[in-house]
Design a protein that fits this description.
145 residues; Heat Shock Protein 90
């Protein structure tokens, strides 16, 4: 994978850091000159992934969230968000719209659906007790399009 540029950062799994992650990713990818809509889509997908790590991955405990963002050739954005939380026992079930592990918190269970709708590719890998890695890709429209 040819990488034109990348940023890596790590943060504690505190809910206040969700907006920081979104801002950091946005600030980095702005160099690729995304449209306002593309930027909004990516910001939303990052918010959902980070929120999932905080709410479901760590479930009230604290850990770290590691984020890598890469600019790839042909205006493709690669984002990996990884936690070392409790993991997901059934990824397929977790990706089903409306499924949630926190119904008492009135969670909608749409996080993965939102990520899928805003990104071109979504991959979720998880091991119980070891954590979850969400990888997303989005190809930006050609300049002027």
């Amino acid at each position: 994978m040819e990488i034109l540029n990348e940023i890596k950062f790590s943060m504690p799994s505190l809910s206040v850091n969700e907006s920081s992650a979104r801002a950091a990713v946005s600030s980095f990818i702005v160099q690729a000159d995304p449209t306002v809509e593309e930027l909004s889509d990516i910001r939303t997908a990052v918010s959902e992934a980070v929120t999932n790590s905080i709410v479901h991955g760590y479930r009230g405990t604290q850990g770290r969230i590691d984020i890598i963002v890469r600019l790839l050739p042909e205006r493709e954005i690669y984002i990996r968000i990884k936690d070392t939380g409790c993991g997901i026992s059934d990824v397929k079930q977790a990706m089903t719209p409306l499924f949630t592990t926190a119904p008492e918190e009135e969670r909608s269970g749409l996080g993965f659906s939102v990520m899928e709708s805003f990104m071109d590719r979504l991959s979720v890998k998880s091991s119980v007790g070891k954590g979850t890695t969400v990888t997303m890709r989005k190809r930006l429209a050609p300049h002027g399009g």
